[in-house]
Design a protein that fits this description.
Length: 129
Amino acid sequence: MNPNLARELQPLLEQERHRLEAELGGIATKDPRMVGDWDARMPDTASRDTNDQSDIEEQADVREEYETRIAQEQALEERLAEVRKALERIAAGSYGACLACGKPIPEERLRANPAAAYHIEHEPESASA
C-alpha cells in the first residue's frame, strides 16, 4: 500500500466521519450504553393540529417519518462504522490491504470508496446490497 495515498485519503475519511456524525445528530441520539450506536428520535409534534381526524392523520405521518428516520439512522450508522474502521486501519498501518486476502486493494477502488476494506470480489454480500 502506498503510504502517501493513506495520508491523502485520511482527511477525506475524517471529513466524512464529521459529516455522518452531524447527519446522525440531526435525526438520532447517541446511545450512552453502546459505543457507536445511535437511536432515531421521534419527530417533533409540539406545534401540530389536535382535532380528532387530523390527530389520526398526524399520528400516521409521525409514524412514517419515524420509520424513515430509523432507516436513515441505520444506513448512516453502518457507513460511520466503515469510516471509523478505515481510520483505525490507517493508524495501525494496515490500510489498503484486503481484509479477506491481505493483498493491496486497487488505488482506484480506494479513491472511489476510501473506507473500502475488501477487493470487489471479496466484498461481503451484505455490504454490496
